[in-house]
# Entry
Amino acid sequence: MPAAGSGLAGVGGDLGLDPLALLAVVVAAVLYGIGTRRLAARGRAWPAHRTALFGLGLAALVAATQGPLAASDTTRFSAHSGQHLLLGMVGPLLLALSAPLTLALQAGSTTTRSRLRRILHSRPAHVLANPLLGIAVFGGSLFALYFTPLLALSLRNELVHVTVHLHFFAAGAIFLWPVVAADPVASRPSHPVRLLAVFLTLPLHTILGLAILSGDRLLAGGWYGRLLGREDALSDQHLGGGVLWAAGELVGLACAALVLSQWMAADERAAARNDRRLDRLAGAETA
# Structure
């Protein structure tokens, strides 16, 4: 079977173009833009930094699915590693911080808002918000891909290739949305639990990256070795392991910093509410 291309059914060839992925990005950008314009028409401003974060998140997905990385992910493990990080961590993190669900709740019609609230408070939404599920799906995906025949299969089969990309994006979203998202999340865990979830996942990229960086066995059943030669493929594989380790750690530390800042902001808001309540009680007593 021929090697998987970067796009569905090999569309885009060596250019690394994926028309369906690009269409999804364009549709998301248009919908987000419509939401911000509707709010502006009602005299309400949507935070510019949220829009910028959404744009950066889409740019990360474009970088992962279009162009050089997408064209090389089946021939170089280092390119695959870059894709992995953009699809599974960077893109979902930036999109979670852009609050698209909040925008939809504020800009949507009454029917849209009602349906979205039902979804957000549904049983599946509560299950997806469980940090244990996020850790299991996100962490399990890492080792299932690299230490089973799945990676080799994804390089040979286009449908599996695309499914793995979608899965990594979904796994990143399932883990990151309850932890750092600016959106409302059903049964959101407390800040200490969210911070613990981040620190529990931080070692996963370290363990994976170091295992690949220090190993001398070619991954994917020697797929990359047949294309590049053993020595070049092993050197590239070590580079990819270093990318997974270093970049994964940086993104994880950024997540920890975000949770800490959100925690402090929540404490400040709670203290302000308590001060206002005490002021009202004091005013009632002196009246």
